[in-house]
Design brief:
39% helix; elongated; 6-stranded mixed β-sheet; alpha/beta; 181 residues
Length: 181
């Protein structure tokens, strides 16, 4: 075989391995560089509930004293520590409007107001008859809006001020992708 042909074949082989190596190195650099930059790979607006909590751990009771258990619906909760102030009432109103905007998926979602055990039912309940009042020990929960899946896992948390569009967008995505509830 001609020496020039051998050299050209070797250069082609080295070039192929070089291209593969550069591609792998570039992809690795992008992966690790993006991963160390903070939240990575999520499109949700709410914060994931960390550490993970379930309904069984919270032991919430409804107005009849029944412990809330998992069902076949998603939940939107407004959690208020003592009483439902103006920020809480605004969040409850936004969740009702959000519930209407869900249209055909509205039957898959229930709304609840969660308050500390023993606190009286706030006046907000009179304005929103389909809002369920839940009570329990709220040590593990922050004040805000929660999305709870049908299995009973608390999925997302939002501050009361973000109870509108961010919750709607995340909930629509969850309902679209969900095989449960």
């Amino acid at each position: 075989m001609d020496e020039g042909l051998k050299r050209r074949n070797r250069l082609q082989l080295v070039a192929l391995f070089g291209i593969a190596g550069l591609t792998l190195a570039g992809a690795s650099a992008l992966f690790y560089g993006a991963r160390s930059g903070g939240v990575w790979g999520t499109v949700n607006h709410g914060e994931f509930v960390q550490p993970a909590l379930t309904l069984a751990e919270l032991q919430l009771e409804d107005s009849e004293g029944q412990v809330l258990s998992t069902g076949e619906t998603w939940w939107l909760w407004v959690v208020a520590r003592e009483s439902c102030d103006s920020g809480c009432a605004d969040a409850v109103l936004q969740l009702r409007q959000l519930h209407v905007l869900l249209a055909k998926d509205a039957a898959r979602v229930q709304r609840g107001l969660v308050t500390q055990q023993g606190s009286p039912a706030p006046g907000v309940l009179a304005e929103f008859p389909k809002l369920r009042h839940l009570q329990g020990n709220l040590e593990a929960l922050k004040t805000g809006v929660y999305v709870v899946d049908p299995i009973g896992n608390l999925v997302f948390w939002y501050p009361l001020a973000d109870a509108g569009k961010p919750v709607l967008e995340d909930l629509k995505r969850l309902l679209k992708l969900s095989q449960i509830g």
